[in-house]
Amino acid sequence: xPIRNPAVECLDLEERTQQQLERLQSTLNRxxxxxxxxxxQFAENRIDPLQIENLSDLTHVPFTHRSHFSxxxxxxxxxxxxxxxxxxxxxxxxxxxxVVSGYTKQDLAVWHEMVARALVxxxxxGLDILQIHLDVGLTNWGREYKDxxxxxxxxxxxxxxxxxxxxxxxxxxxxxxxxxxxxxxxAELVHLLFQSNLNPNALALKTLILVGEAPNRDMARQLEERxxxxxxxxxxxxxxxxxxxxxxxxxxxxLHLSEDHFLxxxxxxxxGVPVKExxxxxxxxTTLTTRAFPLIRYRxxxxxxxxxxxxxxxxxxxxxxxxxxxxxxxxxxxxxxIHHQQVRTFLHRILxxxxxxxxxRVRETRRRDYLEVWLGVDDLIFSDEIKEMEQTSLRxxxxxxxxxGVPVRIQFREPGSFKPELSTDRIxxxxxxxxxx
Amino acid sequence: xxxxxNLRCYYGKIRAINxxxxxxxxxxxxxxxxxxxxxxxTLLQALCGLIPRWEGEMLFERESLKGLKPQxxxxxxxxxxxxxxxxxxxxxxxxNLRLGAYLRYRxxxxxxxxxxxETVMELFPILRERARQPAGTxxxxxxxxVAIARALMARPRLLLLDEPxxxxxxxxxxxxxxxxxxxxxxxxxxxxxxxxARAALQIADRGYVLENGRIVLEGPAEDLLADxxxxxxxxxxxxxEFCEGRA
Lengths: 437, 247
What we know:
With 437 residues, chain A is α/β, with parallel strands linked by helices.
């Protein structure tokens, strides 16, 4: 299988360690100099970047949490002046404030290169027609996949928010050979394909790049069997528009992490202490080359296991097993992470008051995942006209879907019909396969 | 080829280099850029054994430079072209060049030294014409050529250059930098410290930006050339825009 840049991807491990140390130290120096948040974090913990003499010394540095993005909304974590930023992205945050990330020209080039290398590892080439089918919550990733695929001269059908029926029509008529999508959206397309009595052999599809949701091997096998394709998983962070930080190679023994641009640690989510080699824990990432929006020890909430040892493909990037459980209370719906606190906050804003009783559940209908919100009807919501109640429900669902980037259905319930202890402090996952298709 | 880890250098109580980690791979040209007083020259001097007090790790071809004297470091294959050339003005060009091979004469490599004299004369043809002339009577550009040629006479595998284009006319700057690119083709690795950041990055493979003794940026030379921070601080973009805007 081809390797886009063997000099980088197969770099000798000793040289990689030196490269990471050099990049880490310059990132810390720059972040401390240019970002007051990091400068204060270091000062409060009496740390000087000079003390980071080895990669393992990074454990002395405090973590960056998702909540920090909201606290420093919008530009508080930028390390370059705004005039150097050529793109600004918005993603879901943990509260009402979204995550705003900025990119210099070089940052964008780095992301495109990372996407390109991940696509090449999946044997995507300039001969392919690549279609991007992602939900609105992953629009940012759609752009990166477009640019990355264009860098390897594939013919790209960029992300357009279309109903699955139209996506299927494009898939068939445009002779798409590579589809970038989430596992759940792929399953939905397959469902539709067979419902429409279309023969999978009528498609030119040979590669499915699955993003946003942790690998589900059973689901992947089903997709491969039903569509006669090969599936490849990519790992990314929705907080920063980084799809394909890690990618599968032909060996299928974990996802190679782009360690030239990221330093990965795995910690015990409770104690924050690094776990032993090969143990499961929370993935913590530090950017090594990012100019505009450096992240230092960012807790991703994703559960992984890092694997040492060489890979048959020749790449020396460490591999990680991306597990489907999370260390926080977020649930992943069609590739987008949703926190219960976030849903509550948006509900409060839309309704104009704190709902007396509510309950959040993730469900699926016809292979389509959605967030179901039970709302106890209080005096402020109640109307004696059914039509008005229906309209309120639709409006709430639509506004919440716009804010969260995932489909939402509102159900009005008698406040006494569900227990208060079932409500609000978590999102129940009622999908057959917890986030998988 | 060269690997520095957490290098700290001191002048008395003053720390001039603050935990620098840097690497040079065989066959590369590496540019080290930064403002005056950033610590660029100190770093080169430390590599050559001229800074007695340093901490951290300096490995050249996997061997530590700890405790080595300057002449030992030259023997190992690392040679410095110092800032300001530091030629011996009353001595002829050829005598200056032979001094560069001093350690090799002592090892009895006379024949090889003669061959190398021919090679450097081919690299800088003007030096053949000036061979018997006192080095102090040469122009700035010619003196710089002598300084580089003298360092090459030691047959270095890693050539360190400290501000080789300082004070030279633009066409001489280009000539000197073109020569460095030729040296790379001949298998000599180059670590170049330059005030003229744009020119240095144009011939370099990778670069490091040093600020107050710390590396604040590193990466492929083309990335650094395009970096807005680097442009503002070292490439004079704002000044040029201002001038061009007024013109």
